[in-house]
Amino acid sequence: MPGAIHAEGLVKTFGDVRALDGVDLDVPEGTVLGLLGPNGAGKTTAVRILTTLLHPDSGHAEVAGLDVLTQPNEVRRSIGLSGQFAAVDEYLTGRENLRMVARLYQLSAADARRRADELLERFNLAEAADRIAKNYSGGMRRRLDLAAALVVSPPVMFMDEPTTGLDPRNRQALWEVIKELVAGGTTLLLTTQYLEEADHLADSIAVVDHGRIIARGTSDELKRRSGGDVVEVIVRDASRVEETRAVLTRLSDGEAGVDTHTRRLTVPAVGGAKLLVEVIRELDAAGIAIDDIGLRRPTLDDVFISLTGRTAEDPDLAADAAGEAADTHPHGKNAPTAPDGGAAGPAAARASRTTNPEEGSR
Ligand SMILES: Nc1ncnc2c1ncn2[C@@H]1O[C@H](COP(=O)(O)OP(=O)(O)O)[C@@H](O)[C@H]1O
Ligand SMILES: [Mg+2]
């Protein structure tokens, strides 16, 4: 029996860009797939195809046993979507936004009120509930959007970078909500740039880069496959990072991963402690000062580096997440465009609001 989400050979090009280059996915019912990849990898494109907002050039996909191309209306009735760009109505208050969504889902007025209150509480929005959303910070909008996506619990949920722009406390709160949702039987496809998040929430992970799935498995499987321990070096002087990368790559068999922001380099520790000693000796001989060096167990970050030669987290987005209190707004480089087809169900009605032209400027 196919899973709750099943996709085969999805291809989507935008001009010269092959946003998706033959993607296969299978998400068994009641499980969480983490679609992990850097900015521009094709995550949002995949979500838009699976939620019927975009037609693939080729390929085939089913959600909840329904064909996204031939049964889009039925698919829309079976899914929930929280898009990468908050789909809140700026001129309504938080409370009004949630009640409106609840009414779109045909809840009675009393149930809509009750559900809205519950969710406002859940997402730490109770105090701001009666302010118009226009005055919300980026993190608050994001939380309101997530709350709206959770007004009803559809059998299949899509969340596109749900915690980008959230501070750590709210990220944690959302993780709890997601766990409850899944415990209740919902199937979830979650995209993220945060490896820790995939590690925490996903039953299985598909790593996507340049429109292709380059690895899949559980977090443990991916870590094992990346081949054991890594040597990690933090270089004192940013101007010596490139030289250090060359040394690491020469001494080890693997490609060195670099995070220029933190001056941190990692390389698979083929040969273990022996490599560590060689690295220390060579860096010393080259007069490259280091702040820290060590041998450690791989994280999913290391897996990503060993697969792609770079880190998955976009420093700008990470800075946004850290700056929620300062009211920074998450910004995306790829503003969503209009859906191919008309919106039908409430999920699509909400989803299509992500096409608000103002979204692109945030
Ligand atoms: N509507 C569009 N028009 C042109 N290019 C697009 C459009 N949507 C996405 N792309 C391009 O497709 C690639 C994948 O984008 P996207 O799926 O948004 O990646 P992700 O969500 O992983 O950051 C990127 O190179 C992006 O610029
Ligand atoms: Mg995206």
UniProtKB/TrEMBL annotation:
tRNA processing as UniProt keyword: no
Translocase listed as a keyword: yes
Alphabetical list of PROSITE patterns matching this protein: ABC_TRANSPORTER_1, ABC_TRANSPORTER_2
GO MF term list: ABC-type xenobiotic transporter activity; ATP binding; ATP hydrolysis activity
GO BP terms: daunorubicin transport; doxorubicin transport; response to antibiotic
Pfam families: ABC_tran, DrrA1-3_C
Transmembrane segments: none
Family per record: Belongs to the ABC transporter superfamily. Drug exporter-1 (DrugE1) (TC 3.A.1.105) family.
Protein name (record): ABC-type xenobiotic transporter
Source organism (scientific name): Streptomyces alkaliphilus
Lineage: Bacteria, Bacillati, Actinomycetota, Actinomycetes, Kitasatosporales
